Amino acid sequence: MKTPQTSFWRRVCTVPHTYVLLVILVILAAGLTYLIPAGEFSRAKDVASGKTLIVPGSYHQVAAKPLGLLEIPVVLFKGLVDASDIIFFVFVVAGAFEIITHTNMINAFTGRLALVLRGREAWVVPIFLSVFSIGGFTMGMSAEVLVFVPIGIIMARSLGYDVVTGTAMVVLGAGVGYTAGLMNPFSVGIAQAIAQLPLFSGMWLRVLMLVVLLLVTSAYILRYANRVKADPSRSVVAGVPDLVTDFDQKDAALPELKPFHFGVLAVVVAGFALLFWGVSAKNWWINEMAATFMMIGVFSGFVAGYGPSKVANCFVAGARSVTFGALIIGFARAIFVVMQDAKIVDTIVNNLAVWVSVLPHTVQLLGMYVVQTIVSLIIGSSSGQAVVTMPIMVPLSDLLGISRQTAVLIFQCPDGFTNSILPTSAATMGALSVAKIPFERWFKFMLPLELIWLLIGALFAVLASMIGYQ
After folding, report:
1. Confidence class of residue 370 from pLDDT cuts 50, 70 and 90?
2. In CA terms, which of 114, 129, 365, 448 is 20 to 30 Å from 151?
């Protein structure tokens, strides 16, 4: 029989609820507002990039605004409001996909595709990664990727893999493409404009990095997927309620393929084509994307013969199923809201830049890489990070004899890599909420790959410096 003391320590050592973890992080961020002086840079409009950038050397301290303990509930609510567009987008996507899934169209087609791919499952992961990397390195696909997560999950399950594999081969595909940033306007584009480099120049090295990342990520996911397929208990989400980890289409009867399934498929394909056109040609964002996806779901239900009430019931059921994950996005956003409102973000960036400048010359390049990694953990937005750090890192790279193209590479790698593991990343948290994967389980899956990615980025930065990358 276990003693009360043993039970106590087991409770203490158990990983807390995700909401509890996020509130702890908000409290820690609030504590930093008492330890880190408030300060800010002066900012001015830059003609080349069209962005409002910081003025290097203009950092100055301002009146401190530490966060009181009683203000934490207010900040948590502000985080929910600040992330409301992504939160409601998740609700809409989940509701629309519940309608589509209820028609059995996806199961009917993916089940048959899985039978065709039986014995060639190893091709599915690299193909998915490669396809979604295109969205990442062209239009900077990030939050948009969550609409494809259910398709990845259904395909993975039909091949005997778990929900994490299905989510990873969609989310990480877009992630490595975003990081390589061949033509990504939100990271490389803005950073090169600030560095006064030709837009999307130096692409050859980024293509090489993309290939390496796709190969390494494919190998990592396949190793995990095959291990879980052989023993479902080894899945990082084993034991999580409502998650099936060992589903295999061959063990279940395939849904009958009916004429209306082709109609639903046509609606979905036309809807996604409209989404791609709108995002790439018309700069659509959350409002337009949510409206389009809502129409895809409603029209799919009508084509399947559902009445308005059945469509509404399916939509509500889908939205209800992701409430837990969707609200996490707002709680996570509160962490940055605390630091932003207390004006300690610029202080952190300024002190990190000063630290790099006094490092020995031989390690200054890696020092810049470490700084960008730390900043990427604080500022989740690529464009936001670029306008804050690049005006500092560009003149610093000139002073150190490091090419500006290398400085952009040093910025883009940590920025892209960390987005896939940060609880403050709206794209990652949105995808996890749709997949119903607890963040701490995803973190366990991602941490080794994250370290491998960061090492690859550091090696490419050193290579770029050695060859005088231009």
Report:
1. very high
2. 448
